[in-house]
Design a protein that fits this description.
Blueprint lengths: L12 E6 L6 E6 L6 E5 L4 E5 L4 E6 L7 E6 L5 E6 L4 E5 L4 E6 L7 E6 L5 E6 L4 E5 L9 E3 L6 E7 L2 E6 L3 E6 L4 E6 L4 E6 L5 E6 L3 E6 L5 E6 L10 E3 L5 E5 L4 E6 L5 E6 L5 E6 L6 E5 L4 E5 L2
Antiparallel strand pairs: 1-28, 2-3, 3-4, 4-5, 6-7, 7-8, 8-9, 10-11, 11-12, 12-13, 14-15, 15-16, 16-17, 18-19, 19-20, 20-21, 22-23, 23-24, 24-25, 26-27, 27-28
């Protein structure tokens, strides 16, 4: 499956297992420099970790009423946002461990994803209620400054880059909202999308679909460049990303495995027996050959080259 010397290109070694949640861990994210990570779970708690040491530095509890579904970290690492099944998004002070703002009464169903714009002045939330809300972080206004309702089903993922809002939906479409030009571009995938990430060079969008396939799209043309299969993804939100050099696609599986595909060729080049249950989230380190995976089995694992 893999050629000699290729293993060093993948974080294949389980260097540390992080255990601190009761029940499934739903999301894991590195901070901007990769020194720390944040995890969220079905236990309604968020933990800040030193993943190398495997220690919890701080816990953020007592605010979310339902499971945590997503976390996004501000570039300066001073704040982060979280969202979940309680239809509320929270803004947190990392050092103090308290909430600064809460954004509620705009979504009618659970919030699946949150994302900052480039200068962290606006927070976006994507929901099962078929909408995306934009919240002004500079004002004390408790209502969203914009609500996008172009979707026909749950909005599962959101990315904000270069003043473009990229939203993926269970309705089988990726929508690109150009805020400055007031234009919307739609890529029709044709299958329910549960996860989305973009390449490190910003040129491609990777989506995970409920037909057991990952699909890679060119951001400019909307052309599907490749698809990747072999994993199981038919009923859960399963984590995926790309390696730091954009040479390989990384995807979890409902059977607990993690797959590596050659981005261009589309073939499986490496596979890890990572977890005992579904891999809910994968975060690749911003500069090192290293990644984190979270699972419904209640664990988070740090993967390195050994």
């Amino acid at each position: 499956m893999k050629k000699r010397g290729q293993r060093a290109r993948f974080p294949f070694h389980a260097a540390r297992t992080l255990r601190g949640h009761k029940g499934a861990v739903t999301v894991v994210k590195f901070n901007s420099d990769g020194k720390y990570c944040l995890t969220g779970g079905k236990d309604k708690n968020i933990h800040l970790w030193n993943p190398v040491e495997g220690t919890i530095i701080k816990s953020y509890t007592g605010y979310h009423g339902y499971e945590i579904l997503d976390i996004c970290v501000r570039k300066d690492n001073a704040q982060f946002a979280s969202c979940g099944g309680d239809r509320v998004a929270f803004l947190w002070d990392v050092a103090k461990g308290i909430t600064i703002r809460r954004f509620k009464n705009a979504h009618e169903r659970r919030i699946n994803a949150v994302a900052y714009n480039s200068d962290a002045t606006v927070l976006f939330s994507a929901s099962d209620d078929e909408s995306v809300c934009a919240w002004d972080l500079r004002s004390r206004n408790f209502k969203p400054i914009q609500k996008i309702t172009d979707f026909k089903d749950s909005v599962s993922s959101i990315i904000v880059a270069d003043e473009i809002i990229i939203a993926a939906s269970v309705d089988g479409c990726i929508r690109y909202f150009d805020v400055r030009m007031g234009q919307v571009t739609v890529d029709h995938v044709g299958e329910a999308i549960t996860t989305m990430t973009r390449s490190n060079d910003g040129e491609c969008t990777l989506v995970g679909c409920l037909d057991n396939k990952l699909r890679l799209f060119d951001r400019s043309s909307g052309e599907m460049l490749n698809s990747y299969e072999g994993h199981k993804h038919s009923g859960y939100r399963i984590g995926s990303c790309m390696t730091g050099d954009d040479a390989f696609v990384v995807g979890g599986s409902e059977d607990g495995k993690i797959y590596f595909w050659n981005l261009v060729e589309g073939n499986v080049v490496h596979k890890l027996d990572a977890h005992h249950r579904a891999v809910s989230s994968i975060a690749y380190h911003p500069s090192a050959v290293c990644m984190l995976s979270s699972s419904a089995d209640g664990s988070v694992k740090l993967w390195t080259t050994g």
